[in-house]
Amino acid sequence: MNINEHFKELKENYLFATVGAKFAAYQKAHPERKVIKLSIGDVTRPLAPVVIEAMHRAVDDMAHRETFKGYGPDQTCYGYDVLLDSIRNSYARKGVSLGADEIFISDGAKSDCGNILDLFSADNTVLVPDPVYPVYLDTNLMAGRRILFADANASNGFLPLPDDGVRADIIYICSPNNPTGAAYNREQLKLWVDYANRMGAVILYDAAYEYFVTDPALARSIFEVEGARTCAIELCSYSKTAGFTGVRCGYTVVPRELVRGGMRLNRMWARRQSTKFNGVSYITQMGAAAVFTEEGERQIAENLGYYRNNARIISECLDGLGIWYTGGKNSPYIWLKCPGGMESWAFFDYLLENANVVGTPGSGFGRNGEGYFRLTAFGTEENTREACRRIAALLQS
After folding, report:
1. Predicted TM-score (pTM) of this structure
2. Is the CATH number of domain 49-292 3.40.640.10?
3. Which of 203, 245, 247, 349 is most deeply packed, by most CB within 10 A?
C-alpha cells in the first residue's frame, strides 16, 4: 500500500496545537495561577439574540411534519433562499452584485480553503505570503504542490505586492490579514487582480475578517475591484463576523466568469460540493440568515465593537511601551515586534512564565514571522485589560 508521502513534509503538530499543549503543561504545573489566553482567534461573546431566535424557530420547524427539512435545496450546493438573499443583500451594500448560483454555503472558510484545491491539479505553483495562516501552506504541502512565498515584512507593512518576475497559478490573499492584521486598500488589490489576470492565475481571497474593516479606503470584498470576477474566488465566514466558531457556517463565492482550461470553476465547485459535501444544517442556515438582516447587523455590530475596543486597549498598551506593531485597527489581530530582539518562542515562554499571558509566536506562521508575536482581541475586556497590565508591568521592569 502506498501512502501520501507529502505528509512527511508537514511539521509534526499544527501551530495552535503546540501553543495549546504548552499552555496546558504550564497550567497543570501551576494550577494556582490564572493564565490569560490571547492566542487562538476564538470568540468569547455569545450569539446575537436575533440569531438565537431564528435557530429556535428552525428547531420548532424540525418538530412538525409540515415544516420538517431533510437535505437542503439542490443537495445544499447553494443553501436556502433566505440565506442566499441575505448574503446577496450584504454584498449589494458593498456595491457588489452576485447571482444566487455564485454563492456556496459551507461549514466555514477554513474547510473551503483546503477543499477548493480539488479544482486544481497538483502541478500548479502556489504563491502564499510569508508569514501565512498555516492552512494555506499545509493543505498545499499535503498535495505536493510547488510553493513560492511573497515576502511580507516591516518594510512593506506586511502587505507584499505582485512581482511579474514570479509566475504563480494559485495566489492566496487574506485581508485583513491573519496573522499580521494588515489590510490592502483597493488600489493595492487592483495590482493583484491585474497580475492574476495577466498570469491566468486564480486568487483565493480569504475575507474572514472583512467585518472588522471600518476604513472606507479599504476593500471588504475583492469583487469591489474591477477585473476580479475573471480571476478570484472569495472565501467568507460567520465565525468572526457573528461568533459562529462553534456553530460552523461560511460561504464561498465563485463567479460565473471565472474560466480556466476551458472549464467554468463555478460549475466545477458545484459538482465537487454535491459529490463530497452534504451541506450545512437547516437550523444553522436559518441562524446565519438572521445575521445580515437590519436587526442582525445592528446586534453583531455591538459584538464587533466590543472586540475592536479590546484591540484598541492592546494597541494603546503597546504604544505606551514603544513597541512596533501592525493591526489593531480594521482587524482583531495585533502583530508586534518582540521587544529586545527576542525570538518568537523565547518571548512566548517569557510572557507565559512571567506574566501568565499566552499569545502566538510569529515564527509559527513562517520564516518572516521570526521575531514577531500575535495577540488577539477576542478575549473578554476584563482579561484583555488585565493581560495588558501584566505585559506593561513586566516589560517596563
Report:
1. 0.96
2. yes
3. 203
